[in-house]
Specification:
This protein is 27% helix and 24% strand. It is α+β, with helices and mostly antiparallel strands and 262 residues long. The longest helix has 19 residues. 48% of the residues are buried.
Length: 262
């Protein structure tokens, strides 16, 4: 498949997905050459390797003519605060290395997250693990979601006291779930809820939209409930805004998890 020189709202989902997969490949190749895992001092928790991979990813995305919102380099090529303001333009929300502390310590649980957004919200997403086994999650709005090319089905629902919940940040005391996991990469953790490995995800801190946008589309396409803990729109397009994403395999468990953050 050839890749169009410039993408807009009329571009096909298949072409967008193909382009995002190519960009994810760029991230995988670039991180393998990263050697500097010192902090830059420019942003809290930002590694030199984050910038190194981001530069390669942004360079690849510029070839396609869409706007970009990146954790590491901010917004370029668009002027909108929310998807509804985009008109015919497409924006790709990027986290070049989600879970960069894991990556800095040789832990394979880290990924590139790419989510193409149009005026109706998230449209096409790729969340690709950057270390072996290179698991890839992909989703197209209204079509479905896939893990390594295989269709993801709606995961089993369980009551909270039977749930294994992924967390970011210190969990609350006596939450009522069975077990929890703190894996350190929100995008992959949320995809694991869509995949049925986890029953829910609780953000006990806050995240930028790049941390969860791609995974949120994967979740919604398999029927996993996802929301901000405080009822806000999950997809702001301003670099400084933060949200508290919560996900669960049932609305009942979602509401119970949200209650833990209020």
């Amino acid at each position: 498949m050839s890749i169009a020189a410039s993408f807009n709202r009329e571009s096909s989902n298949e072409a967008i997905l193909y382009a995002l997969r190519n960009v994810a490949n760029v991230a995988q190749l670039t991180i393998s050459a990263a050697r500097d895992w010192s902090f830059t001092g420019l942003q809290k928790g930002q590694y030199a390797a984050d910038v190194f991979v981001n530069d390669a990813v942004i360079s690849a995305l510029r070839e396609f003519g869409w706007g970009v919102l990146s954790e590491e380099s901010g917004a370029e090529g668009f002027d909108a605060s929310q998807p509804g303001e985009l008109g015919d333009q497409l924006v790709v929300i990027v986290d070049p290395i989600d879970g960069s502390t894991n990556a800095s310590r040789g832990i394979a649980w880290h990924a590139v997250s790419l989510c193409c957004v149009d005026r109706d919200g998230p449209r096409v997403a790729v969340v690709a693990q950057l270390a072996p086994p290179h698991t890839e999650y992909a989703a197209i709005r209204g079509v479905g979601a896939w893990r390594n090319g295989e269709v993801l089905k709606t995961p089993e629902s369980r009551p909270l006291d039977k749930c294994v919940v992924g967390v970011s940040g210190p969990p609350p005391p006596n939450p009522g779930w069975w077990q929890f996991r703190a894996n350190g990469a929100a995008a992959l953790d949320l995809c694991l809820v869509a995949d049925g490995g986890l029953d829910g995800y609780l953000d006990c801190d806050q995240h930028g939209v790049w941390d969860y946008a791609g995974a949120a589309l994967v979740c919604s396409e398999v029927g996993v409930a996802i929301a901000d803990a405080h009822g806000r729109d999950l997809f702001p397009l301003r670099h400084g805004e933060r949200r508290t994403p919560i996900a669960a395999t049932s609305t009942q468990v979602l509401n119970e998890l949200i209650a833990l953050r209020q």
